[in-house]
Amino acid sequence: MNNLKEAVEAAAERIGPNILETPVVEAPSLSSELGCEVLLKLENIQKTGSFKIRGALNKVLQLTEAEKAAGIVTASSGNHGAAVSKAAQIAGGKVDIYVPEGASPAKIANMERLGGTVHVFGSDSGKSELEAQRVAKETGGTYVSPYNDPQVIAGQGTIGLELSRQVPDMDAVIIAVGGGGLASGIAGYLKAVNPKIETIGAAPAASAAMIASIEAGEIVEIPHDHTLSDGTAGGIDDDAITFPLCRDNLDTLVRVDETAIEEAFRDLFRNEHMLVEGAAAVTLAALRREAPRLKGKKVVLVLCGANISPDVVKSLL
Amino acid sequence: MNNLKEAVEAAAERIGPNILETPVVEAPSLSSELGCEVLLKLENIQKTGSFKIRGALNKVLQLTEAEKAAGIVTASSGNHGAAVSKAAQIAGGKVDIYVPEGASPAKIANMERLGGTVHVFGSDSGKSELEAQRVAKETGGTYVSPYNDPQVIAGQGTIGLELSRQVPDMDAVIIAVGGGGLASGIAGYLKAVNPKIETIGAAPAASAAMIASIEAGEIVEIPHDHTLSDGTAGGIDDDAITFPLCRDNLDTLVRVDETAIEEAFRDLFRNEHMLVEGAAAVTLAALRREAPRLKGKKVVLVLCGANISPDVVKSLL
I want to staple A30 with a disulfide (CB 3.0 to 4.6 A). Which of A38, B78, B104, B197 is the partner? Predict the structure, then answer.
């Protein structure tokens, strides 16, 4: 993606009328605790409850009528499935979503409410993903990857474009990294417009495939443990285009442990009145580690979503 | 306040650079359940966690240097105290806040972090309020009422001004009513610019002083029971200027019971990923009652704040 900046700018034009330009707000309690100016980019109030609508909509809006008629297929047990369903609701098109056994009934109901047809397949998300790809190939439908797609990445990058306008003097931005679509889009765009901004990618130590891959110099498989940051958990495709983008555009990589993520969730909830999902709390946990060298700096945390189960919230409080 | 519209427009100019123009977002799950188009005005992400900063800042920004030097005095155990402290942090001035015994240590710490000096006085909020007024009189300071002040009302009214731009075709707006500052400002402004908009004032049945007063045709004292909507609880001043404003500008008055408020809190949390305080949930509880006659209409719920204790959230989930 040599033209990521242009692709992001085009995506912003394309999806702008249908997404929320989320505000950036101060976090006074965190700022006074950590000694830097902490700002929060509120993708937790984005449509469908996460940033995923940006990439999904940018992708679906570029399908032809024939492609939409042939069907849109994806695999997800959470935010991405809701985002693709919503995107098809806006742009037109029929969506089939493959979810693994044991997927949350609340999330399935949400995808169905948005017009998606949900198929339960396979014992884990890897298997449901392969099935979705197989069905797309067999039926001539379009498979929409949650991150391994230039148009999805460009859509997520519109957050970077908004930030460059909303906080032109930011010193650093912290982004949760799973498959790397969000980080590729935001860091790629920001580095293109202002290389001085420090881009920090953060992941739970329990499942940090992209960080391990960047450290290894190639995409590697690693063991995955359970993490509160379910939105970033799991492995990455062998041919992930996000790998070179994250490798080249992230200045700093931070792993955080589960205790730190839980503590960050509570802090955002108690002190900043923000309801976020685990992946968003990862950014604050990472800031806690990096804060000593960021004293006096203006740091943006991307709060990527708010899709968290009330039972989990209850257990965390 | 014959010139409420002008006062609101002036307030918007005055406070605009220092407050967040909060977004309006769709609530797809509620819309499909209730059969009307439900929109949420997100004052729950406003600075200090509630709309109160609008009125407090509009007031404090109009004090002279001499008035600010003489001191700002208020009484509050929650949002208003934090808002006045923040307003003085922005505009300059020293703030003394009187809180009743038993006030939440977390809320006191928050007011102190924002620069306020907190004094614990009296066994209930009525007593701490009288003490704050006495001190202001004795010291020549300025007492800032949470609602019984034209400049505070004009500040809250800026929400109405934003709504009239953000949702020009709204059919109805639902506002929680306690002392009536928020409802006076929003309903007063909207009725001045478009009398066709239905303005609905909602209060917990456990503490509905303004509704009881409007029904009685004069300000009356009523018994108050405990309510999740602590932000709207309590009596209103004998000389409240909000009384005629609410009486003349609210088309519909709705009392809701505690079970309905709790259920509304859970719905906003679970289905719309919104963390709100009890007073904000009151608006959804009221919509549930009014929805049958609002089918197909575009209805805005003002989510007035997010200051709720994690322990309360835990017990509600």
Answer: A38
Chain B residues whose CB is inside 8 A of the A28 CB are 113-114
Whether residues A161 and A299 fall in one domain: yes
State the CATH number of the domain containing residue A34: 3.40.50.1100
Q: Searching chain A, which residue's CA lies closest to the CA of residue B40?
A: A45
Same domain, A291 and A191: yes
Q: Which domain holds residue B298?
A: 4-50+149-316
Q: Is the dihedral of CA A251, A256, A262, A267 positive or negative?
A: negative
pLDDT at A2 over 80: no
Q: Are B117 and B93 in contact (CB under 8 A)?
A: no
Determine the distance from the C-alpha atom of residue A30 to the mean position of all C-alpha atoms in its chain, rounded to a whole number. Answer: 23
Out of A21, A44, A314, closest to residue B314 by CB: A314
pLDDT, tens digit, for every residue of A269-299?
A: 998 999 999 999 999 999 999 999 999 999 9
Q: Which amino acid is at A208?
A: A
* Domain count of the fold of chain B: 2
Are the beta carbons of B274 and B247 closer than 8 angstroms?
no
Q: Which of A113, A143, A173 is the last residue of a domain?
A: A143
Of A49, A110, A317, the CB nearest to B310: A317
ipTM exceeding the 0.90 mark: yes
